[in-house]
């Protein structure tokens, strides 16, 4: 019996799609540097770390685009 695409998709885990070379930033990282990291890394978001290397948030491409929208107002 052949597995359907849906059945195969349901068996996939995060390990199948996650990025293992994690690029992170701090709350003080300039937006320009984050944009460059996203482009260079071929990723769409980065975790934001505090001084103890704990995740305190995420910054995505969409976040950067929203910031750019408000810059023009």
Automatic annotation (TrEMBL):
Gene3D superfamilies: CBS-domain. The keyword Translocase does not apply. It comes from the Bacteria. Keywords: CBS domain. InterPro entries: CBS_dom, CBS_dom_sf, Diverse_CBS-Domain. The keyword S-adenosyl-L-methionine does not apply. Residues 18-73 form the CBS domain. This is CBS domain-containing protein.
């Amino acid at each position: 019996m052949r597995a359907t695409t849906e059945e195969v998709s349901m068996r996939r885990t995060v390990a199948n799609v996650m990025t293992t070379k994690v690029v992170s930033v701090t709350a003080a990282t300039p937006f320009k540097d984050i944009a460059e990291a996203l482009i260079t890394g071929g990723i769409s978001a980065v975790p934001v770390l505090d001084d103890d290397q704990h995740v305190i948030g995420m910054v995505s491409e969409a976040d950067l685009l929203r910031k750019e929208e408000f810059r023009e107002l």
